[in-house]
Amino acid sequence: MTASSTQLTTEDLDRFRTVQRLAYECAETIAGELQPGMTERQAAALQKTWLLDHGVDDWFHQPFAWFGDRTAFRGPIGFKMLGGFNPAFYPGLRRLEEGMPFILDCAPTLHGYTADIGYCGVLGKNPLLDKLMDDLAEYRRLILAMAKQRRPLSEISQAVDALCAQHGYDPRHKAYPFETLAHRVEKLKDDGKKSHLSVLNFGVRNVTELLKDRFKGGKDGWSPIWNSSKSSDHPPTPGLWAVEPHLGFRDVGAKWEELLVITEDDAFWLDEEVPHVKRWQQRGLWRTEARASA
């Protein structure tokens, strides 16, 4: 089962890792600048400006920001509309308050290499958010272990849903278009242009590659959208996947999103130096083990 005609090299993975680290640096920087009274739109605009100032030339999607109960996709943001498209999904006028959780999500492209990340935090303190963020460590272990075992993607997604039920959480990634737990990310051509076309905040080139994957996968028996449905009932397809388990409990939501590398016979996270892993390490919840194939 071949997903892409382009074999990713070690250099390619290094370039994807560089962009992912840039995206996380942006999220951490803007998170540190958030103040009471700021709106989601302002937070999203700050991310976009920061990334453009650091050379970003395209997007999988332009930055999102969600505050308060919108982090758990409560209210209109969680509704399915227009074939999966929901205008309430976009950053709005919700203002940040003390103790309020937030999620920053950006997917920049630089010279043909794309990252898609999610960063969770709080203005002040929120013990419930801390609990969700701690529990997210178990989902990262589960997804990787099952991917290494080459279990069907739908089975992995269903296991994530089952773990949510065990924890008493809602799997809020099911509120995303197509109930997406993860989606593919492809290497684009570096055409030297400093900007590229976006429609409804999604980069045309990246979305086109996803559609190409959808067409090719339909013929070859795989899907570029990883969820719990029959379309994902196949072994992990080699390539890069942006994985984003999203937990919700009452009015608090938490997630991480990062790139998972799938090869013909292995799986590994693109980078262990991501903020959520560093947080778990500081809290004694995580020990990074070296890859056997490294």
Structure characterization notes:
- There is one protein chain.
- The protein is an alpha+beta fold and 294 residues long.
- It has helices at residues 10-31, 40-53, 127-148, 153-167, 204-220, 275-282, and strands spanning 58-67, 101-110, 113-114, 117-122, 170-171, 182-185, 198-199, 202-203, 225-226, 239-243, 246-249, 252-255, 258-262, 267-269.
- The chain is globular and about 50 Å long.
- The longest helix has 22 residues, at 10-31.
- It has one domain (10-282): Alpha-Beta Complex (Creatine Amidinohydrolase).
- It is built from 6 helices and 14 strands.
- The mean pLDDT is 94.
- A hairpin with a 2-residue loop joins strand 11 and strand 12.
- Helix 1 packs across helix 2 and helix 3 runs antiparallel to helix 4.
Short description:
By secondary structure, the protein is an alpha+beta fold. It has six helices and 14 strands.
